[in-house]
Specification:
Its EC number is 2.7.7.7. Keywords: Cytoplasm, DNA damage, DNA repair, DNA replication, DNA-binding, DNA-directed DNA polymerase, Magnesium, Metal-binding, Mutator protein, Nucleotidyltransferase, Transferase. Belongs to the DNA polymerase type-Y family. It catalyses: DNA(n) + a 2'-deoxyribonucleoside 5'-triphosphate = DNA(n+1) + diphosphate. Among the domains are: about 50 residues, DNA polymerase, domain 1 (Orthogonal Bundle); about 130 residues, DNA polymerase, Y-family, little finger domain (Dna Ligase, domain 1, 2-Layer Sandwich), CATH 3.30.1490. The chain is of the alpha+beta class and about 475 residues long. Helices cover about 35% and strands about 25% of the residues. The structure holds magnesium ion (MG). The site of magnesium ion has 5 residues, from strand 1.
């Protein structure tokens, strides 16, 4: 393990909910819940105000509504979140060539590889500057953990939340982890914690004290050994940039479960296409195609198929992903789909797949035709056609007379709109219209920071101006 805390973990604070509060002045300081609002909907993110009522991500929406009946309930605006994510990832990319994104709002950065930091002081300075840059460019806050390993850096950012920075000095890891609940270790959920508790193990130092043999006896070889290593704060995993990784994958979470089998097939084909785009951008090819399906009940399946040789051909990957999907039951609804390619190589054995060529081209052309419509459904944006338009709670609209606003609610042929923009200081006015009002139209999300597109990336402001600062020293 390295001797300086130069692995950085960034995690944006309550990302979707914070973006909605920044966009909607009337929701600032209020309980906001973003997620699927249908009968089987699940919370994606809850604002800190909503968390005080016990609402948390992955909770069924019905339960959230019972706990926090007065919270604002909004449908995610993935297009906006992706745009913000790109701004954040660009700032991270300026620090190091080794950036490993874990999701839209979370990533590891190897500061040493980017020569951005070499010891605790320089790493901490980079962390502060990054947080200030993120705030300036996106208008949102992110928390930073700095440590000598990925595991501790991630624990650090969790401890720093919200809007903070925690640096864990090498050598102090075991003292920090020792008295904490076993739940602080990654991968220890309620079931494992319960199992350990019945064996008399509740803290991390009790895991270390029990010894590896006992852990293996309790949890099996792989899980037991891994947990023992983590309890000793041993984590040698490197930060891996996509181009160096062993696999490339893309996935999408849907705000509304997909039940329609035809739609599921279309989504899988589209994801396969996107996956190959990334594979090609990295100038790689791969042998194993992986399909990931998370169902309505959060059970997650992965299926894989290994080809005779590596490929970067969209038709081949699509065909394989489609075959894998045929073996998966999706009747209850699908929450997340992913397609990946692993077993990467730097070359392609194209001739192995010559026989597929004609079929692939036909499939590719077919896909181009429907890609646009699928993309808009996936992003849960209102359809531009008046007959189909849906007024989803939280989504953007524009009224010919009153200007920009967002849907506060709809039903019984009426839609209630609050007219306000991210740049206002005070809540805007509310008006109600008929759902077919010709003056009301769905609109694109406004950037959270006015003129953000022109903002310069890379300058910094003084750490002392930031609120709620913590330090792990
Ligand atoms: Mg986050």
């Amino acid at each position: 393990m390295r001797t300086a805390p130069t692995i950085l973990h960034l995690d944006m604070d309550a990302f979707y909910a914070s973006a909605e509060q920044a966009a909607k002045p009337s929701l600032r300081g209020k309980a906001v819940v973003v997620g699927g609002l249908g009968p089987r909907g699940v919370v994606a993110t809850a604002s800190y105000e909503a968390r005080k009522f016990g609402v948390h991500s992955a909770m069924p929406m019905g339960q959230a509504r019972r706990l926090a009946p007065h919270a604002a309930y909004l449908v995610p605006r993935f297009r906006l979140y992706r745009e913000i994510s790109e701004q954040v990832m660009e700032l991270l990319g300026a620090l190091s060539p080794l950036v490993e994104p874990l999701s839209l709002d979370e990533a590891f950065v190897d500061l040493e590889a980017g020569e951005a930091a070499w010891d605790a002081a320089s790493a901490e300075a980079v962390g502060w500057r990054l947080r200030a840059d993120i705030r300036r460019v996106t208008g949102l806050t992110g928390s930073v953990g700095l440590a000598a390993s990925k595991m501790l850096a991630k624990i650090g950012s969790e401890e720093a939340k919200p809007d903070g920075l925690v640096l864990i000095r090498p050598g102090t890891e075991r003292a920090l982890l020792g008295p904490r609940s076993v739940r602080i270790l990654p991968g220890v959920g309620p079931a494992t914690a319960d199992h350990l508790r019945r064996a008399g193990i509740q803290t991390v130092e009790e895991i270390a004290g029990a010894g590896e043999d006992e852990l293996v006896r309790l949890l099996g070889k792989a899980h037991g050994s891994h947990l023992y290593e983590m309890a000793l704060a041993r984590d040698e995993r490197p930060v891996v940039a996509e181009r160096d990784s062993k696999s490339v994958s893309v996935e999408d979470t849907y705000d509304v479960d997909i039940h329609d089998r035809v739609r599921v097939r279309m989504e899988v084909r589209r994801l396969a296409g996107r996956c190959v785009e990334r594979l090609r951008a990295a100038e790689r090819s791969g042998r194993t195609v992986v399909l990931k399906v998370r169902r309505y009940d959060f059970s997650t399946l992965t299926r894989s198929e290994t080809l005779r040789g590596p490929t970067d051909d969209p038709g081949v990957v699509r065909e394989a992903a489609a075959r894998l999907l045929e073996g998966v039951d999706t009747t209850g609804g699908v929450r997340l789909l992913g397609v990946g390619v692993s077993g990467l190589a730097d070359f392609t054995q194209e001739d192995l797949f010559a026989q597929f060529a004609a079929a692939e081209e036909a499939a590719a052309e077919e896909l181009e035709g429907d890609a646009g419509s699928v993309e808009s459904v996936e992003a849960a944006e209102p359809e531009p056609t008046p007959v189909e338009r849906k007024w989803l709670a939280g989504h953007d609209v524009r009224h010919a007379e009153f200007g920009a606003g967002w849907v506060q609610g709809s039903g019984l042929g009426r839609v209630t709109v609050r007219f306000e923009t991210p740049y206002a200081e005070v809540p805007g006015r509310v008006r109600t219209f008929r759902v077919d009002d010709p003056e009301l139209e769905p609109a694109e999300p406004l950037p959270l920071v006015e003129g953000a597109e022109e903002a310069q990336v890379g300058s910094s402001s003084a750490p002392a101006t930031l609120p709620n600062v913590t330090s792990g020293d």
